[in-house]
């Protein structure tokens, strides 16, 4: 049984439906009109704690004594310096913030709760804050651990008897993505141009590509993991130690140009079809905040290699959903699926990634791969919903899509738990702009 969070109430007014309960306290990078240089913030209810201001409080190094020796990590423009402090410090910081903000704890009353001057400087309305990319990402790797997605796509291309390659259940398949095009939620995504085959290819004639705007633009619903503690070149990370290397989690949309992908992906995998944009949510949920929601991954009936054998409860019970908003103002939820629908966990992906000695660095981003469930309403991409672009997908008020149109906005949301124990991600959103 997963341990349950003790219900925590705050002296701050927190809406019980908020993703950002005291049990959460995710970290991000913010700026405000008063403080325009990006720096660290923590989301709580409809507020953001300005951590740079918090660190200016004359009592800061007494209350957060365990940070003192590490210098100033909260006025930095990314979370990398804080992430690099390692998981025990992240845990202590979150727990001390809970004590400071908790209604049931009077130890630090005079620090913030009873000090209007510092409250007005530190506790700012979330609406007044601009959110930035939370980490400087050195490398981005995208896996393919969503078993049902891999199966559905395999059925489309190879039929149900041959849907998954034999190696799929032996190793977490992945590709090296492009960190430079990872953007924060809210950034516009321009429809990419590239080489595509005009549809349909003519039987018996050589395939002749054209260069044109992508016609089959898709989203991919994914879960992302950010690395805290690096490993040296040549040193692997065991599946058992991998948890200690994890900073936290984000929602991720791996935008995909399906027509570019079909033409380019054999023999070395996706390239331009994936490197024009990947969106992530702005708030990083610390690994410790998701501990109560551990659950079992999908059963892998294959006897896996020793280095991949890990804990039973290694994925998370998180409700994910995708909303599609069309430019006429209509919107509908087109997918609801649980994040536990993975064959491989992040510790297994990390162990596999580093088995040959590949170094992971602080701020590296790993994607889970598209998460779909077994049911019709649980598909994590339009490719699956439209059965490879062959059927219409209803997106509300009579509108249909097979792939994304210019002006469409895709919003991914995710949360675990309920009430004062709710731990949510907020939004990972992006709107499609016309090709250049
Ligand atoms: C109150 O905060 C202090 C300091 O962090 C902590 O030691 C104590 O356990 C907390 N008390 C309760 C009731 O949570
Ligand atoms: C996986 O297995 C298939 C079928 O045996 C093989 O063709 C392929 O090269 C293997 N590797 C990958 C990465 O798919
Ligand atoms: C939604 O769709 C309907 C029917 O297509 C349309 O009449 C309406 O203007 C759209 N926009 C909003 C905001 O409802
Ligand atoms: C993700 C997952 O649960 N994978 C399992 C696959 O099966 C092996 C046993 O052969 C387990 O150790 C893995 O955890």
TrEMBL record:
Binding site for Mg(2+): 254, 274, 278
Obligatory cofactor(s): Mg(2+); Ca(2+)
Annotated ranges, domain Fumarylacetoacetase N-terminal: 23-134
Taxonomy of the source species: Eukaryota, Fungi, Dikarya, Ascomycota, Pezizomycotina
Family of this protein: Belongs to the FAH family.
Active site positions, chain numbering: 149
Keywords annotated in UniProt: Calcium, Hydrolase, Magnesium, Metal-binding, Phenylalanine catabolism, Tyrosine catabolism
UniProt enzyme class: hydrolase
Residues engaged in binding Ca(2+): 142, 220, 222, 254
Organism whose genome encodes this protein: Pseudallescheria apiosperma
Binding site for substrate: 144, 158, 261, 265, 370
Catalytic activity: 4-fumarylacetoacetate + H2O = acetoacetate + fumarate + H(+)
Pfam families recorded: FAA_hydrolase, FAA_hydrolase_N
Entry annotated with the keyword Transferase: no
Name the record gives this protein: Fumarylacetoacetase
């Amino acid at each position: 049984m997963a341990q349950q969070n003790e219900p925590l109430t705050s002296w701050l007014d927190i809406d019980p439906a908020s993703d950002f309960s005291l049990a959460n306290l995710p970290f991000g990078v913010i700026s405000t009109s008063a403080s325009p240089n990006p720096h660290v913030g923590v989301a709580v209810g409809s507020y953001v704690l300005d951590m740079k201001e918090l660190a200016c409080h004359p009592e800061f190094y007494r209350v957060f004594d365990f940070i003192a020796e590490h210098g100033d990590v909260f006025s930095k423009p990314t979370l990398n310096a804080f992430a690099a402090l390692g998981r025990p410090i992240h845990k202590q910081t979150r727990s001390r913030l809970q004590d400071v903000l908790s209604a049931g704890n009077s130890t630090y009353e005079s620090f913030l709760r009873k000090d209007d001057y510092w409250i007005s400087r530190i506790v700012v309305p979330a609406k007044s804050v601009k959110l930035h990319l939370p980490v400087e990402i050195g490398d981005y790797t995208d896996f393919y651990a969503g078993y049902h997605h891999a199966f559905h796509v395999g059925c489309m291309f190879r039929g149900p008897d041959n849907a998954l390659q034999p190696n799929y259940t032996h190793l977490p398949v992945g590709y090296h993505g492009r960190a430079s095009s990872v953007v924060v939620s809210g950034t516009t995504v321009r429809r990419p141009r590239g080489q595509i085959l005009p549809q349909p290819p003519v039987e018996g004639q050589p395939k002749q590509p054209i260069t044109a705007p992508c016609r089959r633009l898709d989203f991919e619903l994914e879960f992302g993991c950010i690395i805290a503690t690096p490993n040296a070149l040549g040193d692997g990370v065991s599946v058992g130690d991998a948890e200690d290397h994890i900073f936290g989690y984000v929602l991720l949309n791996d935008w995909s140009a399906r027509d570019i992908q079909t033409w380019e992906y054999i023999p070395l995998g996706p390239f331009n079809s994936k490197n024009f944009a990947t969106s992530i949510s702005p708030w990083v949920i610390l690994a410790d905040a998701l501990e109560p929601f551990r659950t079992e991954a999908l059963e892998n009936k294959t006897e896996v290699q020793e280095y991949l054998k890990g804990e039973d409860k290694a994925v998370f019970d998180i409700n994910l959903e995708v909303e599609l908003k069309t430019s006429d103002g209509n919107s509908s939820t087109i997918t609801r699926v649980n994040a536990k629908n993975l064959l491989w966990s992040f510790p297994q992906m990390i162990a596999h990634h580093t088995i040959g000695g590949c170094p992971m660095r602080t701020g590296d981003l790993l994607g889970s791969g598209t998460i779909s469930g077994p049911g019709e309403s649980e598909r994590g991409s339009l490719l699956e919903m439209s059965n490879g672009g062959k059927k219409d997908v209803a997106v509300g008020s009579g509108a249909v899509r097979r792939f994304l149109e210019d002006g469409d906005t895709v919003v991914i949301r995710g949360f675990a738990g309920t009430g004062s124990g709710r731990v949510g991600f907020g939004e990972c959103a992006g709107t499609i702009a016309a090709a250049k």
